[in-house]
Structures are given as C-alpha cells and as structure tokens.
C-alpha cells in the first residue's frame, strides 16, 4: 500500500510536472510571439516616424524655397524702390528753383505793394537760373508789356511764364 501511495504520488507529481512543463512551453511560445509582434510594431513605428520626418523635411524645404523666393523678390523690390527714391530726390532737388521762380513772378503781379521795378528785378535771376529759353522768352514778354506809367500789365504773359514753369515741373516728376 505504501508502494501504491508512492506510485500515486509519483504519478500525480509527474502529471503536475507535465502540466507545468506544457504550460511553460505554451508561455514561452506566447512570449516569443509577443517579441515578434513587438519587433514588427517597432519596425512599423520606425517606418511611420521616418515617413513623418520625411514629410516634415519636405514641407520645411518647400517653406524654405518659398521664403528664399520671397526674400529674392523683396530684395528686388527694395532695389526698385531705392532707385525710385533716388529719382524722386533728384527730381525734388530740381523742382526747388522752379518753385522759387513761380513765387517771384507771382509776387510781381500779386504783391501787396503792387508791381514794382524791385519785384521785377528780384524775379529776373530766379527765372534766369532755370536756363530755359522758352520760360525766359515768356518772362521777357511779360516784362516788356508792363506799362509803368499806369502801372498796368498783360496778365496773359505772366500766366504764360508760370504755366510753362509748371509744365517743366510736371516733366521732372516721375510717372
């Protein structure tokens, strides 16, 4: 009976050992499958990360190209505007003598004291400074048509002088 109990315990222990061995083998297979799955997921994740990085890189490169193009266009625009500013400054510097001549001619006929030889003499160098034969011709006609005895003048000739000066100013200004 003792042998039967020992044989029964041995059979039970062998059965329990076999069961645990089977469970161990099953768990090891599951662990191996999980490791394979994990490796696959990590590989997919790496591919996704790389594709996202590639997309980000491509988008960044596109933005960089766009920025470089915008910068290039901005530089061209700055150069164009700089050239226009220089042209305007040059034109404005040329306009000052014309405005001085207009002011002097207007004072001859619109001055508070009326027309005087002093006002005419003051306008002469300002008109001469323009070095324009047409303007000088109109100014000479205006002076020649002043009647000093009655203090009268021909408004038309003064107007022709001023109108011609204004036309020269308009020609100086850029479009």
Tell me about this structure.
This protein is mainly alpha-helical and about 180 residues long. It has 4 helices and no strands. It has helices at about 1-110, 115-130, 135-145, 155-170. Helix 1 crosses helix 2 (about 115-130), helix 1 packs antiparallel against helix 4 and helix 3 (about 135-145) runs antiparallel to helix 4. The mean pLDDT is about 85.
What is the structure about, briefly put?
With 175 residues, the protein is mainly α.
Which terms would index this structure?
rod-shaped
In one word, what is the shape? rod-shaped
Radius of gyration: 51 Å
Class by alpha and beta content: mainly alpha
What share of residues is helical? over 70%
Largest sheet: none
Q: What is the element string, with H for helices and E for strands?
A: HHHH
> How much strand content do the residues show?
under 5%
Count of DSSP strands: 0
Number of helices: 4
N-C termini distance: 126 Å
Q: What does the average pLDDT come to?
A: 83
Low-confidence stretches: none
Map the helices and strands.
Elements (H helix, E strand, L loop, with lengths): L1 H109 L6 H12 L4 H12 L10 H18 L3
Helix pairs in contact: 1-2, 1-4, 2-3, 3-4
């Amino acid at each position: 009976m003792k042998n039967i109990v020992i044989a029964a315990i041995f059979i039970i222990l062998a059965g329990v050992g076999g069961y645990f061995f089977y469970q161990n083998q099953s768990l090891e297979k599951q662990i191996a499958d999980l490791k394979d799955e994990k490796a696959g997921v990590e590989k997919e994740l790496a591919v996704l990360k790389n594709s996202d990085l590639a997309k980000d890189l491509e988008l960044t490169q596109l933005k960089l190209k766009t920025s470089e193009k915008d910068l290039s266009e901005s530089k061209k625009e700055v150069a164009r505007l700089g050239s226009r500013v220089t042209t305007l400054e040059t034109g404005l510097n040329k306009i000052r003598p014309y405005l001085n001549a207009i002011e002097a001619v207007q004072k001859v006929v619109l001055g508070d004291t009326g027309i005087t030889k002093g006002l005419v003499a003051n306008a002469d160098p300002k008109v001469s400074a323009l070095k324009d034969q047409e303007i000088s011709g109109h100014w000479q006609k205006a002076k020649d048509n002043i009647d000093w005895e009655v203090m009268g003048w021909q408004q038309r000739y003064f107007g022709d002088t001023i109108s011609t000066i204004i036309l020269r100013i308009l020609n100086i200004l850029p479009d």
